[in-house]
Design goal:
Distance between the termini: 71 Å
Number of strands: 3
Number of helices: 6
Shape: globular
Helix content: 55-70%
Largest sheet: 3 strands, antiparallel
Order of helices and strands: EEEHHHHHH
Radius of gyration: 21 Å
Number of domains: 1
Length: about 170
């Protein structure tokens, strides 16, 4: 019994909705109505931005459930465990809290949240020196790419200093 997510489309008359069923080893399947989740999280975020501390706390609590699943799936494919997933969940929750002023109230919340999660995941893989075999092909280029700007500048400064000394 592995993990994963099944996505189905259900329709009733003119209403069409996406339903995700998350499967975890040893656990029952839990349906997740993406639209209802988005509406709830977005409403909590906006209420929190308007000063409702209880809504903000509830948002972080609910978001942590989805983030935990997101990181467990991604880290399993990178041969990492639940401890790392929990660390990343905390990093994202802190980022949501500290960067909440950047959230555009006219936009969907979950893409904003998962964009933060994705960047935190990629940063984690870079920090831990992930190898190409540890991640999916789609993520490998981003994980293994790094900013050499600082190293290039240091090399140029060193060459400049060496040229100045040799004169």
């Amino acid at each position: 019994m592995g993990g994963g997510t099944d996505i189905t489309i259900e329709s009733a008359g003119t209403l069409v909705q996406l339903v995700c069923v998350t499967k975890q080893a040893g656990h029952a399947n839990y349906p997740m109505d993406i639209r209802a989740t988005e509406v709830e999280l977005r409403d909590l975020m906006i209420a929190g931005l308007n000063g409702n501390a209880a809504s903000h706390k509830t948002l972080l609590s609910r978001a942590s459930v989805y983030l935990r699943g997101y990181f467990r799936n991604h880290l399993a494919s990178a041969n990492r465990g639940a401890v790392e997933a929990e660390d990343l969940v905390q990093e994202v929750l802190i980022a949501i809290h500290t960067q909440r002023h950047t959230y555009d109230r006219t936009r969907l919340f979950t893409p904003w949240m998962y964009a933060i999660a994705r960047y935190k995941f990629l940063d984690y893989l870079r920090r831990t020196r992930a190898e190409a075999g540890d991640v999916s092909v789609e993520e490998a280029e981003e994980v293994l790419a790094h900013n050499d700007h600082g190293a290039v500048e240091s090399s140029l400064r060193l060459l400049s200093l060496q040229a100045g000394i040799s004169r």
